[in-house]
Amino acid sequence: MKNKILNLLLIAGVVTFTACNEDETPEPTTNNTVETNTIIDVTTENGFTILGQALTRVDLVDVLEGEGPFTVFAPTDSAFQALLTELNLTSLDEVSDDDLKQILLNHVVSGKVMSTDLTAGYVNTLSDGPEETKLSLLVDLTDGVMLNNRSKVTQADVAADNGVIHVIDRVITRPSVVDAALANPNFSILVAALTRDDLTTDFVATLSAEGPYTVFAPTNKAFQDLLAGNDDWDELADIPVAVLEAVLKYHVVAGTNVQSTEITDGMMPETFEGSTVTINNTNGVVLTDQNGGTSTVQIADVQTSNGVIHAISAVILPKL
């Protein structure tokens, strides 16, 4: 279980960057080599020894010395130490090479994205998810720059020849389906439903397992509309436990990671509940449930380490 959550970007402490201005032209040295200011150069020159060791260990130095450009979200040394404490670890050696490589790539985004260019929503990192997908990173600009509702940018726009570095105060862990739902406040009612204490199914444990899963996640408004449409239900607690469990299972397709580009018109996957849902993509992605109700995918392809989430506009219902 540890290997699924050991999402460490390991770098040394709070630093003062000495990166060159992007407009400066490197001067030849006396041995006829050209001085560079790549992302690797910036981190090396400013004391990021643990990051350097980690990148060397998993053969990523050449990648981040390459043309790029790249955007790197870099945790401080104190963020690394806090994560070791959080996960009850004592050393980076406890992380396998494969896990460490994906952890480091989870903090790298293709392209040079300055803080003023960031937009709220999801962006893909270079870390691998199921079936050759790339993990999604949630950017929230409500109060500064927050990533996955976990890590805050504390120093932005540190220039390098092949990209830009943003320093963050916590390591960005590679999220599971459950982690991604917890990170997005628009899924707070869904999270409350999945964790209701009278359920007989442990949805958190199930959706934290290896998977993969395809989850159609109703937004808060979708749940509010469901409650408003039933005279007997004023709040989530009013939904009978058997009904709630069946409804939640109906939003999960187990054993596959179906991104929106893989959806074909008329698909009828079997859900975790046991019955099928019909999916069409003629005019957007629309789900039709067992009762003829429809729901539209509003945000597609939120990719996690063990599955993909599609945010939907209405709760879909099996035959009850």
Record the SSE blueprint.
Layout: H1 2-5, H2 39-45, H3 49-57, H4 61-64, E1 70-75, H5 77-86, H6 97-105, E2 108-110, E3 121-128, E4 134-140, E5 146-147, E6 151-160, E7 163-168, H7 177-183, H8 188-194, H9 203-207, E8 213-218, H10 220-228, H11 241-249, E9 252-254, E10 278-280, E11 286-288, E12 294-304, E13 307-312
Parallel strand pairs: 1-7, 8-13
Antiparallel strand pairs: 1-2, 3-4, 4-5, 5-6, 6-7, 8-9, 10-11, 11-12, 12-13
Outline:
By secondary structure, the protein is of the alpha+beta class.
Describe the model.
With about 325 residues, the chain is an alpha+beta fold. It folds into two domains: about 1-170, FAS1 domain, CATH 2.30.180; about 175-310, FAS1 domain. Helix content is about 25%, strand content about 25%. It has eleven helices and 13 strands. The longest helix is centred in the first third of the chain and has 10 residues, at about 75-85. Mean pLDDT is about 90; it is low at about 1-25.
Alpha-beta classification = alpha+beta
In CATH, what is the homologous superfamily of the largest domain? FAS1 domain
CATH topology of the largest domain: FAS1 domain
Beta-strand percentage range: 15-25%
Mean pLDDT: 89
What is the CATH class of the largest domain? Mainly Beta
Global Rg: 22 Å
Which percent range fits the helix content?
Answer: 25-40%
Tally of individual helices: 11
